[in-house]
Amino acid sequence: MSLTVEVESGTNGAGADLGDDPEKLSKTIKALQDQLKRLQSNLPEESTSEEKPDSPPGLKIQKELKISGQIGNPGQKDKLSFVSLIHQIEGAIKKGYSEREVVAAVVKAVTPGLQLRNYLEGRSDLSLPILRRLLRAHF
């Protein structure tokens, strides 16, 4: 960020004549520098790495949602339980992920080749409430 302060020759902005007095000019410059520091201290912090440099202000970049674990056949060891999956879904919604992103992540978490995954991938109208009911029936 840059701030340009122009001082007219011979005046300090308040109409007083600075003339060629270096002491008055030095004091005026010091006052302007102090004022600039006060103004800069009131500015918000610089943007973090989460913001895309060319994006509009306030636009946050969010990582792609990934479900931890895999959804397999009911009772299969080392696979997600229904409760754990629902907990991850609710957490993603609270973090601001859209319903569409959550549904896509859950479908990706289903073990490839499972009939459930084939069925879910074939549904174009899949919403989160419908997905929850299908998962409840699966488990």
Features:
139 residues, single chain, 45% helix, mainly alpha, 0% strand, rod-shaped
Please sum up the structure shown:
This protein is mainly alpha-helical and 139 residues long.
Helices, strands, pairings?
Blueprint: H1 22-41, H2 82-94, H3 99-109, H4 115-122, H5 128-138
What does this 3D model show about the protein?
It is rod-shaped, with a radius of gyration of 30 Å. With 139 residues, the protein is an all-alpha fold. It is built from 5 helices and no strands.
Distance between the first and last residues' Cα: 56 Å
Helical proportion?
40-55%
- The protein's oligomeric status is single chain
Structural class: mainly alpha
Radius of gyration: 30 Å
**Largest sheet, if any?**
none
How confident overall, as mean pLDDT?
A: 81
- Taking pLDDT < 50 over at least 5 consecutive residues as the criterion, the unreliable ranges are 47-53
- SS strand fraction: under 5%
The arrangement of helices and strands along the chain is: HHHHH
